[in-house]
Amino acid sequence: MRLYYYLPNVKWARNSNRAVMGSTLNKKSISDTIIAIPPLSIQLQIVSELDQLNELISLKQQQLKEYDALAQSIFYEMFGNSQIEKKRIDYCVSEMHIGPFGSALKNDCFVDKDASYCMVYEQQHAIKKTMSLPTRYVDKKKYEELKRFTVIPGDIIMSCRGTIGELYEIPQEAPMGIIHPSLMKIRIKRNIIDASYFLFFMRDFIKEQQSNGATIKMAITAKALSKELIPLPPLTLQQSFAERVRAIERQKALVKQSIAEVQTLLDSRMQEYFG
Length: 275
Fold this sequence. Notes:
The chain is α+β, with helices and mostly antiparallel strands and 275 residues long. The chain folds into two domains: 2-65 and 265-274, no CATH class; 85-232, Adenine-n6-DNA-methyltransferase TaqI, Chain A, domain 2. It has nine helices and twelve strands. The strands form four sheets. The protein has a four-stranded antiparallel β-sheet with strand order 4-11-8-9. It is globular, with a radius of gyration of 25 Å.
């Protein structure tokens, strides 16, 4: 079992192989590699500690799945009733469209921050759900050409290429910008639908579509999405659900922080024992 932890950290002796580009790892390379072998009692102690840390991470990851299942259960409990009115998604939004054609926003359109007018929201903002990413910018002239694709705090962006269906609500403190061609902009009607409720429904809908093998795995369009139906209970009921989901998300954030701390400890111990 100690080899399970040890082998990924071994600096293998690699042999040059002219038949293959670069160095290769073969039976002789493995056989010639020298590894440290402490007394068995020490090995067992190390394995026990690392196993416990890995098990703790697994338990916390399972806890995250259970929180997700809880939120989904609450959603269906509150809104699974067939008597709840359903509306097309385009009834709930004032704007929903994909970013500009790729030819309208090529690499040579980007400028340094000092010469810029606004930032460009890109796929990674939606996927990673953070503003703490390297950012590209355009000048005022380019913005005026593409201002139809403006996003402001409170708008929702969704990834539409490669990694499909990742959604992110632009934070209130975030700057105005335009969207990259790989994103869809969604501006909801907040007097009709709650943002957290909308985001939960959309994530659940996209996950279900993907699990069914739908073409949403490959591409998604605003036109097709606008025709989908969404349960539309009274706004106060949506807000009640949203508050319960936010409470769950706060608990998930604590679990994720704990996972990160345990992973840091695990990495540290692995470095100490095998680095």
